[in-house]
Amino acid sequence: MKRLQHSLLPLAAALLLAGCASEVATPASVETPTLFKEVQEHWTSAEPAEARNRGDWWKAFQDPVLDDLIERAAKRNTDIQQAAARLTQARALVQGAQADRMPQVGAGVGTNRGAGTYTTGDTQPATVVQANVSLSYEVDLFGRLARARDAAGLDAQARAALLQSTQLLVQAELAQTYLSLRATDTELALVRDTAAAYADTLRLTQRRYEAGDVAELDVIRIQTELAATEADVHAIRRTRAELEHALAVLVGEAASNFTLAPVTGATALPVIPAGIPATVLARRPDVAAAQASLLAAQARVGVAKTAWFPSIMLTAEAGHAGPELGDLFRWSTRAWAVGALASVPLFDGGRREAGVRGAEAQLDAAGASYRQQVLNALREVEDQLSALRLLQEQSQAQGRAVSAAQRASAISETRYRNGFVSQLELLDARRNELLNRRQAQRVEASQRQATVRLIRALGGGWDAAPLKPLAPVQVSARGETD
Question: Coiled-coil region(s) at which residues (predicted)?
Answer without folding.
Answer: 70-100, 371-398
